[in-house]
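Anyone else keep sequences and structure tokens together like this?

Example one:
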Amino acid sequence: LSGYQGPSPDEVCIVNTMKQLGWIFKGNKSNVMYLDILGKKCKFRLLNVLDFSSDRKRMSVIIQDQRKKIYLICKGADAVMIPRTTYGPATNASSVEEVDKIVHGYSCKGLRCLMYGAKQLSQEEWEVWDQGFRQAANDIENREERMAECMEEIEKGLHFMGITAVEDKLQEEVPESIQILRDANIKVWVITGDKQETAINIGISCKLVSNQEELMIFNEGCKEKLGDSINAHLAELSRKEKSSRKEKELVIDGKTLAVVLSDQSLSKSFASLGALCDCVLVCRASPSQKAAIVTLMKNYEKNKCVEGKMWGLKWTGKLDHMISNKVLSIGDGANDVPMIQRADIGVGIVGKEGRQASNNSDFSIARFRFLVRLLLVHGQTTQYRNANLIKYSFYKNIAISMVMFYYQFYCGFSGQPSIDMLTLNFYNTVFTAVPIIIFSLMDSPVECLETLMKYPQTYNKSRSLHTGIFWKAQVKAFVDAAICFFIPYYSTFYSGSDDLSGLFAVGRISYIALQGVVTLEVFMIARHVTTLFVTFVFYSWVILFPFFYLFDWSMQVLGVPDPGQAGMSNQIFSSAAAWLQMVLVILVSLGLRLGEKGLKAVFYPDDIQLLAEMEVGEKKTQAITRSLLNQSNSPKKMLKKISKTIPSLNNL
């Protein structure tokens, strides 16, 4: 064999190690395994396989050698193997204390341990057990329970064989990535099936544990004592202000977690304590417990949003929970699948553990460090684009609706539209559709997206969309609609053939002016302006004029002229008053928008806006430096000019 493949990278590692020691697995054919043991050809018949499960935490095989002797060989976690193993002179360990010492030593080094035991079975003993095992496997109703009982029965009285310790190396840049996520105010929980010592060592390697001596460790099986301990730590952390308290990390094992999850009040207290901690390490956790932790924290965040509202407004807390404090789960193995599926966002890592996590996730990445870019760059950029897309879509639709609504005050609320239906249908499908689509695909909060990774503190602090921002945009829609309707309406005059007092004349002028206003609005909210974007913004408004000429021409060709629309395009576009009205509407609306944007930039800028201004300052600095380098022949003169210029740029 050129290489080995297996369901677990630990098993592949162990088989490769044994190959280097002279114990070479050659192949498996018809349940017969062929081995080369120190140059000697051997074969073993595989009689039974007792599969691994998250509840059993072990796996066994029953084999028969060439001398017809039958053996059971079992490997698994030390927590389940130690009670099933005997020690003494006939084994490789004299006592349980010696085994515990070995396992503890390996775990403190961050190694993942597997313990091995074996025993010999007689032919009669195996035949009786095999018959019962096959009957249990054929049982339809209680198949799993009966098979578990049979496996539990045979996996007893094992002789201790040894312990293997495998180093599960961290991927590159994992500590740095976790630190960036913590700087972004993201709470990190590490949920693993390893021993407590191994989990703590991994936490130290990832820089999650700042002070090992101050860890809050819960290893208590008594519900009353555990509840008192959790409540005591919760009261201590609640008394201290967040700004002044030191970093607190919590460690809990699987048995204690089972006690916590069995009691509702205890689960609530533990969730409150975990939310106050900077990091939580959960060790010896089964896949079902991983999923239960995710569910616990999701319910806690939901209840916190609801309970924080006044009576009568509790329902708004559920709405707030939809857009705040989401749970993201990331894993690389099959045992992480329940946790990934239960979370709001699941991320799977493609690696040596297989593709089960990747296939069941929302996003798939190749390295853990890519999570930083996924959240800080793609996450923030997508949120920024979607937020502005939602605001703008409501804004432009409310604006056109209000233009028609304002006219109802002057037509006795008869329902008479001031704009023809065909033109209204083209408003969303043609004239205003393309610019916002280009914006949603190409715009970004800052020009260089790497800036978002350099300043993780800005994560999740965007004010692009919340209740106040949303309604402010809708108020602007009301105001812009009023400007676009009332200025043309009260500017009508009578002068013979240049009469613009007709219903559809006023409506068309209002429509063209509104089209210019809403098109400029998407240009005003954009921060990353490209040539393609400017082209489509300009195109979306300019295309109106040939459209109206084509509209009049099509009515004549099709023979269905509308007396109210006949010759309207020539009459409006040849009138200087109509052009002045449209320009005035756009200037008034644009002036209000620029004033509001200037006040925001000066008095209450957001973090993203400050980062964008920093980028502009850096570009100016680089441009002036290059200019000085090109103009200055003397290095001394060049350095003097640069030293005088750079401080002035830093004051921008």
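And example two:
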Amino acid sequence: SDLEVILDRLSSSSDNNNDDDDGNDAERLQRVGLHDVMIPAIFYEKSVEQVRNDLRVNGYVAISYVASDIFDLALEQTVQILTDYQLIQDYLCPPMDKRAQSSIMVVADRHLVTPEHHVKWMAHVNEALRNVTEPTKLESLVHHLESALDLGVTIQHVKSLMGSDDDDQKLRGELRGGDSHEATFLPAIYLETQRTRIDQFFAANGYFTLDTCLAMDLPPNRMGLYLQESFPNSIVLQHCVIDVDVIASPLKGAVEEAMVADSFVNLNAFLPEPLLANEEDVTRMIQNHVLSNMESSNGQHPSSGILVQCDGDVLCFSPGMIRTIQKHHLPLLIESYAKTRAEEMDHAGMAEASMAEELSCQPPQGKKRGGSKRSTKKVDATDSIGDGTKKGKDKKRNRKGGARKEEASDLPMSDSMACSIVPLALVAQRVADAYPELADLQEDRHGPLQEYSLNNNNNDAVPWERSSEDDPGSVMIGIGPLYEFCRIALFSSHLEDACRRALRAELVRVVSTKKGCSVSGRKAGAAKTQSIDEAFQDPACFPTSFYVVQLVSKAIQTITAANANDTDINMIASLEHDFLKGCAADFTKRITQYCLFQNGVEDDIFSFHKHDNSNDIDPAHDQSNLPSFCHAVNLATCKFNPVYLSCPASENSLDGTTPQDPLPALRNVLPGSIGVALARMWVLCGGECYHHGAKVAADGSITYRPGDFAGFLRHAEESCLTICGLPFKVLDKKSEKQTLFARRHELSQALDRTMEPGLVLDLTIMLLFQQVKHLTVNGLDLRDTILKLLVKEKKIPDAVATEIEKLANCINNGGQELGDLLVYRVKEFGLCRDISKVESTSALEK
């Protein structure tokens, strides 16, 4: 063989000691690593030449083919030889990374390719991609063309061909999938069609979800930016993109109706079904892009309501509904349940022991309880019994039944009082009775509600805390939207404290009655008595009535001082008389009713209205069954209802029908100086406000005992603490600013809801007078004295003054020439933030 001939030559050369020949032949020997066999270069030069020939003929050759079929050597030795002959450096495709030069195996599946073949095949790739109309995977293209170029080379080539739409020499389209086997080319015509389909879907439906992305071949990670290119105002959430105008507008309308009605709304009918699949997105969308952008209604902002997602329903509960339940329904339920529990404990012989144990838990005298600071702050609409405004993790824990971390209870709790909280079953039933639509929704999802009663021993079967949803063996009791609402909106430390205080009061009453101790003769239970005291002392009730008295009297004093040089005595007297008959008499009635209640005087001894004027009577109680003197002060009151203190005939009267003098009766039924001070306050209001305050002259004319404006203010400030145990709150700058702000808000809300001409006129006068003078006015003189003063103000444009006077004249003339446009214009004046900038009514109409 050739190898034997070569070896023989080497042997003979060595024997002849030919140093030059030995040196030349040695340079032509190579150690290729096959069992330490020395192979001369002539052996594989022929193989290398064959590789070069295959490249010239075919344009490419696989390295694996060279190793197995041409060299018949291992891949490592083959690559080494090809490298020595510069073939790897010149023809390897793609070229070897410098960082991978030491690794032979990285070229195991590559080819040696001539530049001419590379250019030719890339032209085929370019032509193939220019003709496709659907997404094309580059890996399948490589196999289809049976090219020697691998996928990586093809991807890099396609990237180099990508260009702008204006360059005809470039590929128009998009490459997705990076450098992986999923690399796919999407032609421009397909992208245009995809864009059209996606934009049309979003414009028609107002949303785009991850599922829609997959259906329309859009990468989910590009969903947000992709849609915002065509819809800049779209909102990107975690699992979807929404158009606020399309999705939020119907939601806002539905929520606004619920806010006005102090009710709730099921938003399912206004939400596309695909959006309901993700609770987190729904919550974020409604809270951040619907409720937060709405205006307040009925004095409450929608964002302070409750959003409950349960059984696929999305329910929005208004703050007014929550407040109504907390103020009007829960107190009665708590009182009834406390009475029942106290009786049960008494029958079981536990009443005295429980009361003693409870008293031992009370804080020492002189120390404030844990929640005492809260009582000095203005209570929120949902902060009296159940805190419905908890947000974030606390709300989520309540809904899912996890452990709740709330503030420490205001009152210490003994072991015997642990069962004082009213059961969820009873609360849910009371809410269901008050809101049948919510009860119907609950029954549609979970069947008829079970009937519960105060004496039902199975009430606690429905727990306030949710059962574990992770335990497949647990029985889910008390599930559904009704129960979830009660848990989230009503259950809090405030509810627990209210229940505990109610039971404690009932236990004291039961034990005191058994021991023969003196207890109040009023019919109300101990729990209700406590609720009335708390409601009366609420910042929105009696303390605000102090402020109203001072604000209205300050307005009269300011008007008097401003007109000191040309004072119209009749005008000032009219304002003071109106104040005493209205604001002062209403304040006196409120404090009198509270004193009568505090001292256990029966309700039917005194009357506070004229019997022939029953249409002007405020209802004595509202849905909460609390007396009217506990109601919050209405800062938007235009005219106070007439007040008239009277006392029915006594058995000792001569004819049995002549009413008693109410002032001596007050002194008799109320202890100490309370009755005397109250009687004095009524006298200072004037004889028109109480029976026997008028004198009939011989000619039949009637004169009333005059009131005393300054005297009433002094007496009210000096005697309030004596009368009801509450000091007269002097109005400071901070309180005045807060009260005026709240009053303007309530007046604006009332004006916005009405188109009744007289009410529009009165509210507009009150709002504008407060805006330009920072004074509080109301009463019977609004359309007379106050209107005359208002139109003289420099800040009131002449056009505005003319329109307001025109509406007043039309009303005085019985509504002649009264049109809706005039009423609307005056209403807009009242709602205007800065009336001095209204130059003309025509500009306002536009």
